[in-house]
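REQUEST FORM: STRUCTURE PREDICTION
Request ID: SP-0412
Submitted by: Lab K.M.
Chain count: 1
Length (residues): 82
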Amino acid sequence: MTRTAPAVPPWLAHALRSQRGPVSRSAVLRGALGGGPLLLGAVLAGRPTLGVVAAIGAMFAGINDRPGSRRASVARIGTPAL
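STATUS: Completed
RESULT:
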């Protein structure tokens, strides 16, 4: 009896497909410095789940931050977090 691997759903295949293109080193560093201390502090405080939530918030802020006014920035950064 041969066993075949189940087919991967299309959404998962798309997410796992390798991306080609330049990697913004400054964006990687900004993300690590934004989420790393939050995770470390939460782990040291014994509340790693809160650190994950805070780090996800920092990730949203880093991804959605674009040039413009602070008022527009609050809407771009805050809306995905809700």
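NOTES: The mean pLDDT is 80.
Reviewed by: T.R.
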